[in-house]
Amino acid sequence: MTFYRRVLVLGGARSGKSRTALQLAESTSPDRTYIATAQAFDDEMRERIAQHRAERDQSWQTVDAPLDLVQAVQAQAAPRKAVLVDCLTLWLSNIVLAERDPTHEADRLIQAVREAQGPLILVSNEVGQGIVPPTPLGRTFRDEQGRLNQRIAEACDAVVFVAAGCPILLKPAPPLRLRLE
After folding, report:
1. Is residue 1 over pLDDT 70?
2. What's the mean pLDDT when you consider all of the chain?
3. 34, 52, 91, 102: which is the annotated catalytic residue?
4. pTM
5. Contact of 98 with 91, CB cutoff 8 Å
6. 3-state DSSP call for residue 134?
7. Domains of the chain, start order
8. How far apart are CA 33 and CA 72, in angstroms?
9. Has 104 been annotated as catalytic?
């Protein structure tokens, strides 16, 4: 059996990525922290946050880090402790709306991911497979999210894509080989 220390779990909206990440963390350690990046600006988001909280039992410690994700990862990541970040898409949205430099913040996060002690699971939306956003801000966000996902994937030992609740291991993957004929 192969074990990974840093795992990125990707998927579309309602794909089952958060549930997959929770199961992975729960199978890893009884000592676990959920780092939440969502902010409850409206009733719908408050309901989503409540649903996510209801999916976790009392064994979870929850840390809210809508902007200061790097500091939360650095403070929480420890040997024998599973840390789950849900999700990078909301964090990036918060960074953009706060008018922080997404590239600088991503650089800081990548460093924290690489230095994290203990198991670290990061959840993110795969946003590049849908419709091209109609606004410049939407297209810029999609591009920033795609770049962030690529960089986090590179920093992680494993990448899992979730579709219809089914996890698919993307990394590590066997090398691709072409056959010359």
Report:
1. no
2. 93
3. 52
4. 0.92
5. no
6. coil
7. 9-171 (3.40.50.300)
8. 10
9. no
